[in-house]
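Input.
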Amino acid sequence: MNYRTESGETTKMKIGIDLGGSHIAIGVVANKGKILEKVETRITGLEKNGIKKVIEDYIFDKTAGLFSHYKITEIGIAIPGTVKNEVVVKSVNLGLKNYEIVKNLQNRIDLPIKIRNDAKCAALAENAYGALKAYKRSIFLTLGTGIGGAVIINNKLLDTGELPGCEFGHMIIEKNGRLCKCGKKGCWEKYASMKAFKDDLREILHLDERTSGKELLDILRKTDKNHPNYQQINKLIEQYINYLSIGIANLINIFEPEAIGIGGSFVFYEEIFLEKLKRKILEDKLLFNERKELLIQTAILDNDAGLIGSTL
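Output.
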């Protein structure tokens, strides 16, 4: 199947793959980031024991069907973690180390395959097509299982040399704090990732991990002063906003961006968190260079930013 642009020209398409800490999404991406078809699945805790096989089997199975329907020229992969020379050096949230995923896939898929950190993919997509396209200097954060990030300067990713850098989720905000999967204690993502918030909320409500993020959001929307856990939930939200604001203020003080974009599952909780976050940073005077207003906005491309950006 060929996809025609508005001018009537046909365009060759790419497959974007987003490997998240808790899901795999695969989509066919055409011009201007348009997703023509997408499939996704959730990764359970049990599946992480054989995560490489889960990832590769799912990709082989789903891309086979897409190849038969679309003219695909390239595959892009977005993954949380450190990527060097097409090898996943480490991905702590997926439990991967020195994973040669591109080599393994190319044993069965005869197409160019490229791979990049998921937050950087998402940042490129939002810079090209989404919330950050009007700005030359920006920071993009993905708040999901962990916290990823990227810095855009003059429409390009900040060059940190041989290793990708911008591991914002692993800046330490609590000395001797919670143990992170990276081996350090007190990393920002252990307090301000969406996983951290959801896990803490499930604990308050005595729910297990099978309770989805959507179900938790519905609970928050319905929580009022008559709810038996009202005070605990409000305290948790306040605490979460506090941790999130500290990390974001640190990044603003270092990079002085024109705008900040936030993606990942945070976008679905915008109504709960976003205005509180802005007020917290400004009213607590956390910024070195004082601002009257703060441009923080959620990703326009929602949770598809990483998938789209993997093809850029």
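The longest strand covers residues 35-42.
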